[in-house]
Every structure is written in structure tokens, then in C-alpha cells.
Amino acid sequence: MNLSQEDWVAQLESDENAVILDVRTEDEFNDGYIENAVNIDINKGQAFIYDIEELDKNKNYYVYCRSGARSAKACQIMNELGFENAYNLLGGILDWEGETVNP
């Protein structure tokens, strides 16, 4: 499900079962990420699938990438794997107006 930044943030803030998932590369992640995000690189192919399958399917996943394209694909893959609640951040971190963490 695609959500605008406003809806994504509002839903995330009221969700006690939320996990923020960053599907960019490690280098992109190290350039700055949304606080508390877990990084699983979608470009790793089958390794991405293995890592996603290790996650708790009962949680709600707030997924983002650079522009929203890879995270949309990640949400689609997660839905196919049985995740019921995967929310894509439209516009990705490029359009993000909130705080980011710079490691």
C-alpha cells in the first residue's frame, strides 16, 4: 500500500507494532536514514528474500528507499511472502521532510 509522507508518518507514530525498513544499499543507508530503520538491500536478490523471510509477519512494515520505486517492489514481494501490512513511502527519502540519522 502506497502512503503519502503525511499518512506514512501519522500511521507510523500511532503504530506500536511498527518496523521501519530501508531497502536501499548499505552505502545509501550510511549517507543517512530514518531513525530506527532496519537496512535490508533489495538489490541483493535471493539474499533479500531470505532476510525478509526472517522478519516477523505479524508486525507492520513501513518501507522506504531513495525515491519510492524499490520500496514499492519490496512491499509487493513482502505481500507475496505473506506480509499483510507493508506500507510504501511515496517519494522515498528524497522527499522526506523529517529527521534523518547520519552515522
UniProtKB/TrEMBL annotation:
Coiled coil: none annotated. Residues 14-102 form the Rhodanese domain. This is Rhodanese-like domain-containing protein.
